[in-house]
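Please check this one:

***
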Amino acid sequence: MNAFLADERRELIERLSRLCRDRFASRAEIYDRTATFPTEDFDDLFRAELHAPLVPVSSGGLGLDIKNDLFTLWMMTKEIAKVDMSFARCWEGHINSQALLAGLGNERQKSRWFEGIVTRGEKWAAWSGEPQSCIPGQTAPVGTTVRVVRGGYVVDGRKMFATSSTGARWAILLTNLHGPGGARHATAPADGLLILICDLLDPSVTSEEGSWDPIGMRGTVSRVVRFNKTFLPDDHLLGVPGQYVRDHWQTRFSPHYCASFLGGAQAAYEYALQYVRTSGKSNDPYVQHRVAVMGLNVESAHLWLRHVADLWRGGQQSEAISAGSRVRYLVERWATDTLEYAIRACGARSLLRPSSLERIYRDLSFYVRHDNADHVLATIGRELLGEPHDGSFFLMQPTSRLTDSTSHND
């Protein structure tokens, strides 16, 4: 599907693909087993000058504008996810932060933080997760409070699913002046939602050891992070309160998850092809059916992602947001179906370590839980029925805080 790209973009993807095969693939199993952050992978990206895709060329980056080069960006993520979905998730947070800096930062902020990314290889993350519902065995609440003080803001509390918690230097925090919940889990009005930049070297910020031991996506090291009255200066505020929801920023990022899903699915498909050919199963009609479905799923996912990217590039924001919900649902289904067909075609031996399919099975199973697929599908249904709907977080009952995000007539 690189035929969709201009020659210089194809060269970029091919260069990254070689790096993935030659370096990242051999480390993925180690990061997974030890649940450690892929520092060496990021360092390789930095040395290859692939570390700053959304930083403008004038500031030393690749200049992949979020509105004009989304497909190239998503294909970079896909290549990384083919060898390590955990690393792809860390990469997503890193480049989404660059997107927010580029889109919402003032000139002083961009100059300061782009310089750190380009010249020192500083790694970034973006954290919102503050689920307010408790689960059995939970002993401490999750959530942050933020208050305005002289010269800035004070953040106190805990965030979950803090991807890259042991490897990132900077984190973008979505916090709300009206109370806990971040962006996804807040019920308060969106006018209090802040985008704050936090220096993770601050001693008041700590990650909780033992808080990240999942079945998959282990290398993301998405621990619980504690903020102990962390002070953030005024110039660490990006944009204006409420802008993240009002300007539909999450709808730009939601299809990006699909690039990671697709990377895992394509890796499973390629593993199955090799397995079937070497094991002499190519003449089995049932195996042929499964190979056909896997191939169609992978091809369809590429076509849909290209369609969504073209809508953003053409300035068709409302159509892009709607298509983003659809691709989010469809690619999850296609990816999980492809994985299931790959396992059925290859048999139980494909789930024994060190088979890459075993890790893809755990990573993809865990990662697709980022959004509730039933809620995504219901959002699409509500849109088709002309009902209020939330294209950012797929909430079942859109509240007043999301009034702006349910209107796509921009």
Summary: Strands lie at 124-127, 143-149, 152-162, 170-176, 193-199, 205-207, 223-233, 237-238. The chain has three domains: 2-122, 143-244, 248-406. The first helix runs from residue 7 to 34. The two ends are 31 Å apart (CA to CA).
